[in-house]
Amino acid sequence: MKSGVMVLIFCVLNVFCLFSAFCADGSNNDSEIFTFRVAPDSVRVWRGYKANSIDNSRFFKLLGTVFIPGTPLFQAPLGLTAYLPAILSADAPDFIPDEIALVFYKSKEKYKETFKTIAGRAYGALHGTVFSFSKEKRSTSAWPKLLKDIFVFDTPYYLFNLPIDWQKGIAVLYVAGNTPGMTKTDFKNSLFQYLKRLQKTRPIGLDGAIVVATGSYFIYWEHWLNSSFRNKYSNINELNSFSVEYLKGDAVEIKSSGNIYSPNPGLKAIVGGEIFNFSFPRK
After folding, report:
1. Selected residue with higher pLDDT from 48 and 135
2. Model pTM?
3. 145-146 and 157-158: which strand pairing?
4. Distance in angstroms (rounded) separating the CA atoms of residues 132 and 48
5. Which of 66, 131, 189, 190 could form an S-S bond across to 48 if both were Cys, CB 3.0 to 4.6 Å?
6. How far apart are CA 71 and CA 270, in angstroms?
7. Is the separation of the CB atoms in 259 and 283 below 8 Å?
């Protein structure tokens, strides 16, 4: 009986040590990491193009004072669990989306239920004041699929079938375009081969990856348990061998609190090149 108890204690201590290693840099020392892990397909992969009716200055101001800081305030009570928006530089080519985001919910069902509320419908309608939905430049969002043996343009994919909490840990974004002279087929094949290698041999500490691509660009997100694993095992720079970088970096934590009625100046001036990961209470 005593030996059985000792074995149990030993196992518990090992699990605790592993968890402590994951949290060594302080990025995951929150009990919410277990509570708000969601399925990898419970995310809207957003690609937004600026509305033609507003200039870049007005676009950046609306993003920074209304749209981006308002998203967690509108949607967290309705099941939002993580929100990672990024703004491209105004100098980026026209074919690159102007604002992109990962918008995680507890489930697909929770997201659909948001439209049963006035707040959810108001938030959806708010997109039309900032983004273009014309045929030429159509802003879009979609659920990702598990990457298997076929890689299709304009379809978001996730690489690992693991439930995780994107509000915690380290999120990395890489946005890049096709290199001059490379065909769309070669561009797609090069990216697909990179992703399949990563999927087959997942580096220690990498538990999430989401990608969407066209013949002109790709948007690639990674999620690491902490910066120690990322710094030691990331091979994201291999993407430079067949692409032209337009935005790359870690998401910066932005704390969100209060509600839509609280005094709130919004974010500091948006200039392009920002990558955010909002920290907010989850319901």
Report:
1. 48
2. 0.87
3. parallel
4. 7
5. 131
6. 16
7. no
Residue 105 in tokens: 């919910």
Distance CA 138, CA 118 (A): 25
Helices 68-75 & 118-126 angle (0-180, nearest 10): 160
Q: Is 125 helix (H, G, I), strand (E, B) or coil?
A: helix
Q: Report d(CA 84, CA 252) in Å as an integer.
A: 9
Question: pLDDT of 35-48, one tens digit each?
Answer: 689 999 999 999 99
User: Per-residue pLDDT tens for 55-75?
Assistant: 999 999 999 999 999 999 999
pLDDT for residue 91: 94
3-state secondary structure 6-35: HHHHHHHHHHHHHHHHHCCCCCCCCCHHHH
271 neighbors 247 (Cβ within 8 angstroms): no
Q: Encode burial over 187-204: b for 16+ CB neighbours within 10 A, e otherwise.
A: bbebbbebbeebbeeeee
Q: pLDDT band for position 5 (50/70/90)?
A: very low
Strand partners, 48: 99
Let me know: does 71 contact 278? Beta carbons within 8 Å: yes
Contact 270, 98 (CB under 8 A): no
Sign, CA dihedral 50-56-58-59, equals: positive
Query: CATH assignment of 31-279?
Result: 3.30.70.100
Q: What is the sign, positive or negative, of the torsion defined by CA atoms of 208, 143, 49, 99?
A: negative
Residue 115 to residue 109: CA distance in whole angstroms: 11
Residue 146 near residue 158 (C-beta atoms within 8 A)? yes
CA 214 to chain centre: 18
Sorted by where each begins, the domain ranges of the chain are: 1-30, 31-279
